[in-house]
Design goal:
The chain has 567 residues and is mainly β. The chain has two domains: 42-248, no CATH class; 260-557, no CATH class. Helix content is 8%, strand content 35%. The strands form ten sheets. A six-stranded mixed beta sheet has the order 29-28-27-24-23-36, with helices on one face. Strands 16-18-14-15-17 form a five-stranded antiparallel beta sheet, with no helix packed on it. Strands 19, 30, 31, 32 and 35 form a five-stranded mixed beta sheet that branches. A hairpin with a 4-residue loop joins strand 33 (453-459) and strand 34 (464-470). The longest helix is centred in the middle third of the chain and has 11 residues, at 260-270. The two termini are 40 Å apart. It holds the Pfam family Vps62.
Length: 567
């Protein structure tokens, strides 16, 4: 029937609310200084104008045996006159309702905004030619399909792209005027991001998955714009291009990004408080304090370091991390005291950049610690403080606030954790005051976490790996007041004066190689035989940075300075 696979699925209670209650931040949104297009509710993308819709009406829901494990599908409502939807929205039932889809209209060709893209005779938007039924669910009763879910892919005309799927609760095809396809040159490639629904062969002869999507080309230079729709399929393989696309921002002015005054207002309103562990020894400092208190610049082949000017003006500028230069702690008695940092001088160094094609902005906040302490191993109930493994001079860590350019609303925060990290939605954050979240910095390693606790880098299931302990304490830095804006390239040359030290592309600490395997092997050899293999296997998969001392490169040399975060 309809070319789809049908299987038993418990129907959801029909009394479900037709319009869900949307999650709101703890406090009202900030009052912002005037600007061009930031937080105005709409964004021009060149030939298209888009509006973010966050009001929805219930269509259909899965429900397996546990309602919280189900997924609900919605259609946008309250669409402004002249705008068209691109697809439907869905989300899991086990999280607060907070989502959006974009609706779109074509900008008249004579308008200034439309001149940013090469004018093509074909209209920017067209109705689909037809729909293809991708999948359906009907309780194995082919004679009574009403009330079941039917998933439709719009068939775009030649030269156009579909942007999302439609869901209905009957086998009747949606009307063609219910959705629009977008001319291909105004679109960009999108990719599957996170699984929302996974129907295994336990319930169906053929598996079926629903994914959230995101632009394939992301980061500061990426033009892809997330539409907010989902993708679904029965046989997708990683790397395969999807039958739907995302939009592309062809407006080079990025008019929806915040201006300088608005940036400061956003930081004052949303800036998190960074808590360090109560037993933390190696606290942060400002970069200028580090330089003022004796930090040295070394050149390859020289045994004696050169004192660094307080503003870093004598650091080599530009180039790449070629190993020719590095910084180090001062020598003599001051070495150990500078290791400990100076939290009174500490501040967050802020980089603001476009995200998701300029429909969001990322406020990346970098913090510097003169020293990263040695790691602590956890094996079951045993905790072993290591003498060297994991330590190094200089430590740059960061977290990133993602702000919606339609509304000025905090959407999520990225928590950087060693060589990776995780995005956390606003509804899963801890807040300390108003809309200011909390960032917990782990003991010794300074990785960022959204909640207090012990996080294992290794195998959390077995309880074997490197400990990351995070907790609140009297050691903290309030980023809403203790910060310095160091870069916002989209504002133009000279608008934000970048400090000299930001151009230092080499390492902020020396490279020291030592036989850390010996220290690990001594520990492994005293374990019971039944644990040795598991522990050894996990430890040897940990990052190589744990097996020697190597200072990090500065913020601007990181790939997420221009690119997207790793998560």
């Amino acid at each position: 029937m309809f070319g789809c696979q049908c299987f038993y699925w418990k129907k959801r209670d029909l009394l479900a609310p037709s319009e869900p209650e949307t999650y709101s931040l703890p406090a009202p949104l900030p009052q912002l200084p005037q600007g061009q297009g930031f937080a105005s509710g709409k964004i021009n993308l060149g030939e298209l104008e888009v509006v973010k819709i966050s009001r929805f009406k219930f269509i259909w829901s899965t429900n397996l045996q546990d309602e919280k494990k189900g997924v609900t599908f919605y259609k946008p409502v309250g669409i402004p006159d002249g705008f068209y939807k691109l697809g439907h929205y869905c989300q899991s039932n086990d999280q607060p309702f907070r989502g959006f889809v974009l609706v779109v209209r074509e900008i008249p060709s004579e308008s200034e905004a439309a001149h940013f893209s090469i004018h093509v005779a074909s209209p920017a938007l067209r109705e689909p030619l037809d729909y293809t039924l991708v999948w359906c669910s009907n309780d194995r009763n082919e004679e009574s399909p009403e009330g079941c879910g039917f998933f439709w892919l719009p068939q775009a005309p030649k030269g156009y792209k579909s942007m999302g799927y439609l869901v209905t609760h009957s086998p009747k095809k949606p009307k063609l005027d219910k959705v629009r396809c977008v001319r291909a040159d105004l679109t960009d490639r999108c990719e599957n991001y996170q699984v929302i629904l996974n129907v295994s062969t336990r319930f169906s002869e053929f598996p079926f998955q629903v994914w959230s999507t995101r632009p394939y080309h992301r980061g500061m230079l990426g033009k892809g714009v997330s539409v907010g729709t989902f993708s679904c399929n029965s046989c997708w393989t990683p790397g395969q291009e999807l039958p739907i696309a995302c939009l592309k921002n062809l407006d080079p002015t990025l008019h929806a990004m915040p201006n300088c005054d608005q940036i400061h207002a956003l930081i004052n309103h949303y800036g998190p408080t960074v808590f360090f562990h109560p037993d933390e020894i190696y606290l942060p400092s400002s970069v200028s304090w580090f330089f003022k208190n004796g930090a040295l610049l070394f050149k390859k082949g020289d045994l004696v370091g050169e004192p660094i000017d307080i503003d870093g003006s004598n650091l080599p500028s530009g180039g790449r991390n070629d190993g020719e230069f590095w910084t180090d702690l001062p020598t003599g008695d001051r070495r150990n005291s500078v290791k400990l940092g100076n939290i009174g001088s500490a501040k967050l160094y802020v980089h603001v950049k476009p995200a998701l094609g300029g429909t969001f902005n990322d406020i990346a906040m970098w913090i510097f610690c003169p020293f990263n302490g040695p790691a602590t191993l956890k094996v079951g109930y045993m905790n072993i403080a290591l003498s060297k493994i994991g330590q190094h001079v200089g430590d740059w860590e960061h977290f990133t606030l993602r702000i919606c350019n339609f509304t000025g609303e905090l959407w999520s925060i990225y928590f950087s954790q060693h060589s990776g990290g995780v995005w956390v939605n606003a509804y899963d954050l801890d807040f300390i005051q108003g809309n200011k979240a909390i960032v917990y910095s782990s003991k010794s390693g300074h990785a960022s976490f959204p909640h207090p606790g012990t996080y294992i880098q290794g195998s959390a299931k077995l309880g074997i790996g490197i400990r990351n302990d995070a907790s609140s304490s009297n050691f903290y830095v309030d980023s809403s007041t203790h910060y310095e804006l160091v870069a916002a390239e989209y504002l133009g040359d000279g608008v934000v004066a970048e400090p000299g030290w930001l151009q230092f592309m080499r390492k902020w600490g020396p490279t020291i190689v030592y036989d850390s395997r010996t220290e690990l092997d001594k520990f492994i050899n005293i374990l019971p035989m039944m644990l040795r293999y598991s522990v050894q296997n996990i430890f040897y998969k940990l990052p190589v940075e744990l097996y020697g001392e190597e200072g990090p490169t500065g913020p601007k040399e990181k790939n997420n300075w221009v690119g997207d975060e790793r998560g």
